[in-house]
Amino acid sequence: MPSWTIHLAIVNKVLKEVKLQNSNIFALANVIPDIFEGHNTPNPSRIVKDYSTHYPYRTSINGMAIDLPDIKKFKNEYQKKFTNPVILGYYTHLLTDNYWNVQLYQNHYKMCDEQKNLLEIKLSDGSSKICSFAEIQPVKHKDLRTFATYLNNKYEIHFPEYDEKIFDYLSDLKEFTYTEDDIKRTVEYINENIKNKRGIVQDENYQLYSKEELLSYIDNSVRLIKEEILESNGI
What we know:
The chain is mainly α. The protein has helices at residues 4-17, 23-29, 71-78, 85-107, 133-154, 166-170, 180-195, 211-231, and strands at residues 56-61, 64-69, 109-113, 118-122, 128-132. It has one domain. A 3-stranded antiparallel beta sheet has the order 3-4-5. It has a two-stranded antiparallel sheet with strand order 1-2.
């Protein structure tokens, strides 16, 4: 769920606290799980469905059936490869997505009428409203775009650069194969749409989240990454 701006802001904070070799490739690996979804990288070499690049498993939170990244499955599969910056970065992305999605569904969404597909939504001002999932999606996306613009103006973002050495590390990733164009177009997208596109936030009126809540998610994500990957695996 978090945008690439959010992922890369988290990467920057992680790298300030933990020294990693190949930090550029680690940063780039924090976005590659989203390449084949086709939302950002233009014309990827393939399009996948059903969130498959995130190792999904179906669970339920507050009466809603949702897909979350199966971080245990990925860790069990690749734990001996965590010195590989691509594997470590990919796993960091999955951890971040898992945490942000769980927080959204635990704190803001609750199924109240499954037959009519209606949710009770807790808004940033503490009030609640009843609406469908489709109705709340644009509100969520607007809040996250506003927050991403705030981060891009106020935070340090770790913008990855293209490095052909990434393909030496990508060979350990079994399920998916990325082309040179996939990686180059991803870096170009980041440069054109994040790095070189800072803008003024005209309306910082969050509706679903609060800015303070989202900032706490960043700090908690960094702490989770340190505890679950970097410190626990002696990297």
